[in-house]
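Thread amino acids onto this structure.
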């Protein structure tokens, strides 16, 4: 059934009740003050440029409370506009400065020199798509100036706003002596009877109802059959501009179906008749919908931009807090670390930094909503440092000038060491303390006033405790194996031997299970069971984007390598997946998968790629352009070279005549570097190491790859005008291998 206006107003938030609105006949803005105060309104709009908060030597006038009231501004009796009246309550803060010469004998308070206290009150009004500011000069007589006391209020008439709009109002005094007051409220639309009868634009406005149909949501627009109107679905984001999702011009009654998975709290609807200067009605009916909030957390993503910078991306603002935690390998809850990182509010779609902690795979980031449920979790260095380690985290806390206490972080809490508890850390308390004092643990974080965090490995203790268990298991396994051998020997002694002709292969008759043994191996009812082919090694090819001709050359190399027992991965063959996930995420995932499968990553260097690498290593800014892909995979592979993990995992390649090997940056020369096709045999030998060799003659595969590379290299260099490559000609499609 359709959602009633009362329930819809509750979903929209605080909204004034439209019973009987005051009508203003004035077309100009006005200001007035309460008894005893004098007000003056500056003509026209003013710029909203609030400065920093200042300290005041004497009494100052500050706003203490902000109120609003809806009125109708009616130049004509039946042609009104919705208007917001703002009331600012003012008070005095601070004292008059006493003279420095002599102390007055008279106890009467000193009068200010000008006989009054004066301030400028700024009112800022924002309602999409307009924003205004008004400036009021308020003067308070000296007799009313009492520190900490309210002096009255100032009233501004008024800010005009659109029907159904959400308005935000700020107020502060200049100079600013404290933070501004702010107020947000939702204005009624044409559904209110007083508004509908007084505003002409409501007479032809489309009516929109929201109803449910199972898991779907229906938007029902009740208009006449020949009326044209516009409908807009958008995200009303607090941080950043509005994002349009769906817009259409429609005619007549319409029913639009929304899937429940598309609902988010900031999803809003706007409708208006297709007429000049028509009023737009906007409302956001899903702000309190539980399904919308669940969908928002499913859409939200926690991204690690670099080892020390993270970002939470979501279409709407989120009430969330971030904490740094320690994740044990037993898949238990991640234990928050306080210190070094106190929980703080999260700003969506804004990069934030972590505290300076040492890298460890068990350090993770949590997004906590309302301190009740963990919504997102991402470990910082799980990809670069490997899986979680069986380490225990020791928390060293300062208890005095030269005294410290140590406890072990466990799911039950922080266990003091030594302890008589039954936890794993308590049972190994003496050994852990000995390792801690001898500095055999790794320090993750330190603060002179608070303490430090230490990660102590537990593998050696587990090995010592389980060595007897393993020996026992081995003895039992040996005994069982010997027992089965004896039993098998007895079974063979009870059976009569089968005569076999000398020089003929032994062949058994087909049994009840359908198997038999023949000269070609095991067969089932005459069909030979093929031997499983060895799994091909994965080769990830990374290159720079140097134009269509160079991409053909890269494609020829990838196509030639794919003819060998290799599974070649290159971004040229995964453009759709690359566009869907982004360059950084795609290269990062492919590199991780390749190295986990004992594959190899091939770095293809060109003159442009070498230049970009030098800029990257010198921490210079790389302009956006055709080398975005290069910047993405450089950020993925460079840590492996800088930390000495490139051996056996990476190979460098450049083409003959295009590059000198000394120009390749020094960090990347830690991996073997080959020039193709002149050094092709050595490159293929390094590429296939650890895999089964190619079937057939060893030189067949190398010759096929060399022929394909020579043809593609000649085509590219001829097109680019390189010397010694012949006349220019169309390189045509990538050469295919026979």
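Threaded sequence (738 positions):
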């Amino acid at each position: 059934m359709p959602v009633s206006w009362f329930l819809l107003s509750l979903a929209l938030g605080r909204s004034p009740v439209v019973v009987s609105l005051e009508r203003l006949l004035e077309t100009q803005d006005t200001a007035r003050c309460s008894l005893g105060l004098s007000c003056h309104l500056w003509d026209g709009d003013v710029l909203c440029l609030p400065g920093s908060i200042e300290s005041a030597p004497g009494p100052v006038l500050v706003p203490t409370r902000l109120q609003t009231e809806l009125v109708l501004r009616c130049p004509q009796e039946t042609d009104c506009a919705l208007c917001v009246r703002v009331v600012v309550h003012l008070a005095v803060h601070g004292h008059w400065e006493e003279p420095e010469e002599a102390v007055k004998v008279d106890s009467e308070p000193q009068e200010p020199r000008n006989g009054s206290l004066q301030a400028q009150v700024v009112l800022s009004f924002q309602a999409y798509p307009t924003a205004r500011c008004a400036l009021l000069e308020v003067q308070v007589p000296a007799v009313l100036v009492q520190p900490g006391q309210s002096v009255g209020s100032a009233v501004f008439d008024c800010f005009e706003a659109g029907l159904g709009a959400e308005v935000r109002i700020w107020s502060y005094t200049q100079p600013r002596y404290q933070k501004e007051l702010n107020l947000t409220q939702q204005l009624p639309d044409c559904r209110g009877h007083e508004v509908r009868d007084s505003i002409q634009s409501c007479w032809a406005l489309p009516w929109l109802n929201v109803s449910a149909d199972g898991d779907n949501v229906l938007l029902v627009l009740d208009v006449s059959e020949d009326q044209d109107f516009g409908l807009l679905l958008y995200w009303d984001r607090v941080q950043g501009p509005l994002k349009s999702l769906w817009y259409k011009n429609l005619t007549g009654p319409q029913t639009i179906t929304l899937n429940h998975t598309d609902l988010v709290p900031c999803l809003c609807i706007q409708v208006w008749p297709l007429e000049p200067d028509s009023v737009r009605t906007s409302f956001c009916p899903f702000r309190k919908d539980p399904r919308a909030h669940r969908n928002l957390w499913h859409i939200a993503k926690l991204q690690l931009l670099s080892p020390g910078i993270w970002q939470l991306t979501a279409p709407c603002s989120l009430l969330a807090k971030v904490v740094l935690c320690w994740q044990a390998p037993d898949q238990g809850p991640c234990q928050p670390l306080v210190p070094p990182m106190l929980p703080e509010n999260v700003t969506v779609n804004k990069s934030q930094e972590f505290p300076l902690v040492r890298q460890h795979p068990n350090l993770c980031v949590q997004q906590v909503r309302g301190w009740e449920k963990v919504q997102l979790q991402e470990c910082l260095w799980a990809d670069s440092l490997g899986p979680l380690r069986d380490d225990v985290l020791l928390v060293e806390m300062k208890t005095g000038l030269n005294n410290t206490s140590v406890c072990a972080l466990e799911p039950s809490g922080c266990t003091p060491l030594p302890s008589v508890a039954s936890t794993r850390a308590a049972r190994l308390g003496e050994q852990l303390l000995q390792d801690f004092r001898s500095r055999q643990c790794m320090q993750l974080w330190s603060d002179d006033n608070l303490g430090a965090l230490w990660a102590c490995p537990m593998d050696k203790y587990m090995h010592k405790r389980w060595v007897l268990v393993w020996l026992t298991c081995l003895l039992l396994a040996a005994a069982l194996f010997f027992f089965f051998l004896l039993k098998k020997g007895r079974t063979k002694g009870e059976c009569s031997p089968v005569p076999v002709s000398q020089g003929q292969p032994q062949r058994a008759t087909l049994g009840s299970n359908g198997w038999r043994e023949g000269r070609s191996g095991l067969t089932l009812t005459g069909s030979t069971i093929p031997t499983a082919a060895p799994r091909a090694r994965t080769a990830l090819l990374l290159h720079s984007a140097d134009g269509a001709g160079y991409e053909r050359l890269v494609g020829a190399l990838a196509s030639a390598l794919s003819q060998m027992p290799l599974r070649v991965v290159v971004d040229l063959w995964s453009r759709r997946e690359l566009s869907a996930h982004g360059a950084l995420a795609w290269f990062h995932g492919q590199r991780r998968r390749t190295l986990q499968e004992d594959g190899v990553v091939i770095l293809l260097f060109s003159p442009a790629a070498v230049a970009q690498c030098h800029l990257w290593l010198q921490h210079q800014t790389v302009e956006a352009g055709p080398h975005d892909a290069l910047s993405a995979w450089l950020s993925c592979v460079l840590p492996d070279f800088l930390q000495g993990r490139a051996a056996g995992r990476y190979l460098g390649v450049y083409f003959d005549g295009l590059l000198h090997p000394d120009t390749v940056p020094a960090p990347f020369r830690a991996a073997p570097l080959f020039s193709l096709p002149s050094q092709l045999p050595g490159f293929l030998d390094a590429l296939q190491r650890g895999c089964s060799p190619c079937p057939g003659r060893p030189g067949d595969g190398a010759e096929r790859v060399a022929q394909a590379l020579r043809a593609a290299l000649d085509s590219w260099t001829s097109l680019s005008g390189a010397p010694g490559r012949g006349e220019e000609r169309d390189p045509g499609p990538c050469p295919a291998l026979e």
